[in-house]
Amino acid sequence: MKMLKTLAAAALALCAAAAVQARPLAEIEKSGTIVLGSEGQYAPFNFFKGKELTGYEIEVAEAVVKKMGLKHEWKTVGFDALLTGLAQDRWDLVIASHGITEERAKAATFTDPHYCSGGIIVSLKPEIRTAADLAGKTVAVQTGTSYLEHVKEVPGVKDVKNFPTDEAARSALGSKRVDAWVTDRFVAKEMLQKAPKAGFKTGELLFVEKIAAAVKKDNQSLADAWNKAFQALVADGTIGKISQKYFQEDVTCK
Ligand code: ARG
């Protein structure tokens, strides 16, 4: 009886261990479908057009996984929950404009970057352009982003206001609840094109970053397969075409 109990306990422990294990490539291939996580509120990178999730990195991801011979399933949650969900194996890969940072790399393994960009200052006032101009000002950023981390380091900033989405941070600027908004330079570029009358002005680039997808820490087999397929699509012009469609320029890292 005691023996049986010990065996049962061991079996349970094994199951629990399996449940927290990231799915390596072989297992994903066996199932045929990769589970992808994104946000869906960050145009033009990942957003909903009606019910359809689309955008630059959504199309990149779909092309890459197709090249890998896989079907895919999307899960969308708040930006802040994406890396946590990855660590909990709720999805195999996250693609939501994460900048590669040392901090994030402690908990996740990044793939090759699918674009190079940076955080830019946006304001309604032409006199707010540089990091120095943010002294004494209130700045809006999305929670959990690299923008938050960098704005916190700017000396003299009066207040950094966090918003659950980048769009909410932008609205705060639009309704003058803040003096500036820090976002991605391509997000800002599109905003200015779409709403030229809103009066948004872009200032200085606060910092630059490489943006990549992420898999669970040390799920190297999956990262390698993704990178191989991604590089093949860069070489055959597929990624360049998707980039031209959204940005009229090549946003990949050179
Ligand atoms: N690039 C920034 C970062 O690394 C912002 C990403 C925001 N992504 C999103 N889907 N809202 O934190």
Automatic annotation (TrEMBL):
Domain Solute-binding protein family 3/N-terminal: 33-250
Ranges where the Ionotropic glutamate receptor C-terminal domain occurs: 33-249
Signal peptide per UniProt: 1-22
SUPFAM superfamilies (UniProt xref): Periplasmic binding protein-like II
Location in or out of the cell: Cell envelope
GO annotation, cellular component aspect: cell envelope; membrane
Protein name: Amino acid ABC transporter substrate-binding protein (PAAT family)
Record's keyword annotation contains Signal: yes
Family: Belongs to the bacterial solute-binding protein 3 family.
Main location: other
InterPro entries: Iontro_rcpt_C, SBP_3_CS, Solute-binding_3/MltF_N
Sorted UniProt keywords: Signal
GO molecular function, one term: ligand-gated monoatomic ion channel activity
Organism listed in the record: Melaminivora alkalimesophila
Pfam families: SBP_bac_3
